[in-house]
Amino acid sequence: AKRNGGGRWTWFDPIMDQLADSDARLSNDLRQAIIRDELFLVYQPIVELPHGRLAGVEALVRWRHPEHGLVSPAVFIPLAERDGQIMEVGRWVLEQVIHQTARWQREYGADAPTKVSVNVSARQLNEPGFPAEMEALLSAAGLDPARLVVEVTETAVLGTGVALDVVRRLHELGLSIALDDFGTGQSSLSLLVDCPVTWLKVDKSFVDGVTSDSPQAVIVNGLIGITRGLRMQAVAEGVETAEQAEWLYQAGYRFAQGYHFARPMPASDVELLLTLRDTR
Ligand code: C2E
Ligand code: CA
Ligand code: CA
Ligand code: CA
């Protein structure tokens, strides 16, 4: 390894080489993943407080790698964003989610998950043709756009003017927009003015702090006032304990998501929840 003048490791470092190498290998493997049917989706319930009734689900992608086992989307989604494969992965995800949601709509009617959320990355949002692609997929599946929530991050929307336009057009198509990981990106409250946001997803890093006397608790508390005033809905992310759930309910939160309620699960388990809900 070589050090440059500033004393920092340069990219001649063998460890960095290895990292880049494994990145490249994983990138190659990802190219095969769709063809080899290694990607699949799980769905995490979003529940209504305080009783925990199913309000919707968020689709989350998984990759079962033939050698490494499950690879986290926290690893391969950023990789796919860097190497451009996110367009293909994103399209695959969208097709699956729309297909699944249409099936739920047909089979469960009014009892189907009211809202199904799908994560859309910055690159997809910067594709001017994205809304048309979305529209085509929705109409091919006969899916009511109102069933679908598109989750975007502040950073992705703030990137360029194209992204903001794309978000507005998606909203015009009848989809709802959720601002994901709120508070962690290049936060700008003006986004809440410029962007047709229905759902504000308050990031886990804030929710983690609610039961202690912390700045996070103050912020989580304050956000409820903002969402009410702007006629948006707040969702607390990453709720892990009953204490947090109780605190959030007292603070005015009506929607939550987290391991305390349910982990991401296969579609068949979501259907089990739907049938349970019927008989309750
Ligand atoms: P995200 O959109 O913020 O999704 C929430 C993540 O938090 C999920 O991780 C979920 O499993 C996890 N989570 C939910 N409740 C809890 C909790 O109570 N405690 C903890 N510790 N974690 C909780 P996951 O599935 O590993 O996804 C990580 C990230 O990868 C997502 O964060 C999202 O940014 C990205 N991602 C996942 N699926 C997709 C996709 O289909 N498309 C795109 N573009 N990104 C995706
Ligand atoms: Ca999300
Ligand atoms: Ca999130
Ligand atoms: Ca996150």
TrEMBL record:
<feature type="domain" description="EAL">
    <location>
        <begin position="23"/>
        <end position="278"/>
    </location>
</feature>
<protein>
    <submittedName>
        <fullName>EAL domain-containing protein</fullName>
    </submittedName>
</protein>
